[in-house]
Amino acid sequence: xxxxxxxxxxxxxxxxxxxxxxxxxxxxxxxxxxxxxxxxxxxxxxxxxxxxxxxxxxxxxxxxxxxxxxxxxxxxxxxxxxxxxxxxxxxxxxxxxxxxxxxxxxxxxxxxxxxxxxxxxxxxxxxxxxxxxxxxxxxxxxxxxxxxxxxxxxxxxxxxxxxxxxxxxxxxxxxxxxxxxxxxxxxxxxxxxxxxxxxxxxxxxxxxxxxxxxxxxxxxxxxxxxxxxxxxxxxxxxxxxxxxxxxxxxxxxxxxxxxxxxxxxxxxxxxxxxxxxxxxx
Length: 281
What we know:
Blueprint: E1 4-22, E2 28-48, E3 52-56, H1 69-81, E4 86-92, H2 103-118, H3 125-133, H4 139-144, E5 148-152, E6 156-159, E7 167-172, H5 179-184, H6 204-208, E8 212-213, H7 216-222, H8 225-235, E9 240-243, E10 250-254, H9 257-267, E11 274-279
Parallel strand pairs: 1-8, 3-4
Antiparallel strand pairs: 1-2, 2-4, 2-5, 5-6, 7-10, 7-11, 9-10
Helix pairs in contact: 1-2
């Protein structure tokens, strides 16, 4: 039996984020297009003869131990497996925290996938997704491991038939944004009418035409720098730019690597923002 495994936990961006309605349970009905990117945390999972779960991240704003969503994932898999030993989890954070990129949810999903293999649980993808949604709304998407239309609170996933690969420039102005705060301040007066989502896209230009995020109306007024970053990305050659998730990370969509890297260099010249040039996966 394998005793340890090292996995990459990718970030995500939202090409589309429609908030359809508020649910009685306090959550919101959503419709999203979610895309993984090759900016990844590094997650090392090791089985131990000593009972208990130990999570070490060492990143400001991310708790170690029981407060970490990865700890909760490990607890669920240990309980299901009957394994009497323990687990040690080391997370090397490369994805900014509270940034709208899903880093914590991806770490959680990666622990579910890794421990399912290490412990020989044999749980199906659907079962892991069921466990995942009880831990966080974005977790099932990272278990699913495909570009998808996500509905419900994010747990109803439909793969997109064809979507072009693209280069993205991520820009984060280093201001943490609470997802709970954004949704609490979102004003919904009626159920939203939804345009039809194409099942496939020919190229990045066609994809850029559908980029939209309802949460911008909350986050941008509170953090005007997001609007400025969007403008700078388009001026630097992006086909379109959009805030990802609840923000504050903004991405510019490019159809070639050279233009994307030049834009990343340009935006990085006169500020201390987090900037990464990434590719979709």
